[in-house]
Design goal:
Number of helices: 16
Distance between the termini: 12 Å
Number of strands: 0
Structural class: mainly alpha
Length: 317
């Protein structure tokens, strides 16, 4: 497969997964902004959290000058001039899909093209008129439909593998960033259980679990109310949780050896090393190092793996 084609397939799935992850991020921040706040501007701080996580807060302030709910939501969701907006991600995914129209199935193309056409209609209507929660659910539903079409209609060939690579690299990075952002918001006291049993603590941690579709998994595995320690273990070290770090790295380490050629050995080796490191790490070791420090290290390692995949398979010869 030509590296250009592989790159378009890989980035098509990364941008679709990123749009879904951004919608999850926006949904949890918007929900938490509606809670009674302890200090002035608390709701705006929650709405600004996705901008902090994606590194676009400075760009927003440069253009708009001050935090305002409607502008924040529009900038993050529907702004075509913001390269990190959901709108821009779906536009980029559709452009990549168009470039490889001959390598994806009709069902996949029709799904992503219809998503883009609907996105343009929503942008014309406006985020507040359409409904923020409704919009976030729509983005997630469209992403689920694309993955369903991919699994149901795509041949299990190299094109399918590159699509899966993009999905799991993006998902691993997002899970780490969302957990880290929520942990830093809660503070070190969260690990000591200071917020356990409180209504606010329950709602904040539950919102994170729901954002990562892990609330039902948590209630099945743990009897305690949602708390920082158990949630960190669930989202980092449980292989049976679909959006956990270990689950994503495990998928990557299984996909990479299936690609042809010897150029991919550095990426394959790094994925295998990452899987072993996470699989044989206990939550006590993570907390001993410091949750924020541990997550920061693994964000860098996931980025290194993404760079290795790019240099091994996606760069033009």
């Amino acid at each position: 497969m030509l590296s250009r084609t592989a790159s378009d397939l890989y980035w098509m799935s990364r941008y679709l997964e990123r749009a879904e992850n951004l919608a999850r991020m926006l949904d949890v921040s918007y929900s938490l902004s509606l809670l009674p706040q302890d200090r002035n501007g608390g709701g705006l701080d929650e709405l600004a959290m996705p901008l902090l996580i994606t590194g676009t807060l400075d760009a927003y302030l440069e253009r708009h000058g001050e935090l305002a709910a409607e502008r924040l939501l529009s900038f993050f969701a529907l702004d075509p001039d913001n390269p990190a907006s959901i709108y821009s991600c779906l536009a980029a995914a559709r452009a990549s899909a168009h470039a490889v129209r001959g390598r994806i199935t009709l069902d996949m193309w029709e799904n992503i093209n219809a998503t883009w056409l609907e996105m343009r209609g929503i942008a014309a209507e406006g985020i507040l008129r359409y409904g923020i929660s409704r919009f976030c659910e729509w983005v997630k539903d469209r992403s689920h439909l694309f993955r369903g079409a991919t699994f149901a209609t795509s041949m299990r060939n190299d094109a399918f593998r590159f699509i899966r690579l993009g999905t799991f690299i993006e998902r691993a990075d997002n899970t780490l960033r969302l957990l880290d952002a929520r942990y830093q918001t809660q503070g070190e006291a969260a690990l000591a259980g200071a917020d356990e049993g409180t209504a606010r603590g329950y709602y904040q941690w539950s919102a994170l679990l729901r954002a990562l579709s892990a609330f039902e998994g948590y209630t099945e595995l743990y009897r305690a109310s949602p708390n920082a320690r158990n949630i960190a273990e669930l989202l980092l070290l449980r292989e049976d949780v679909p959006r956990s770090l270990l689950s994503c790295i495990e998928e990557l380490s299984e996909i990479l050896p299936g690609l042809p050629g010897v150029n991919g050995r550095p990426a394959q080796r790094l994925a295998a090393e990452l899987e072993a490191r996470v699989r044989y790490t206990g939550i006590d070791e993570v907390l001993e190092q410091g949750l924020h420090t541990w997550i920061t290290d693994y964000i860098l390692l996931v980025r290194q793996l993404a760079n290795a995949i790019h240099s091994s398979y996606l760069e033009a010869a």
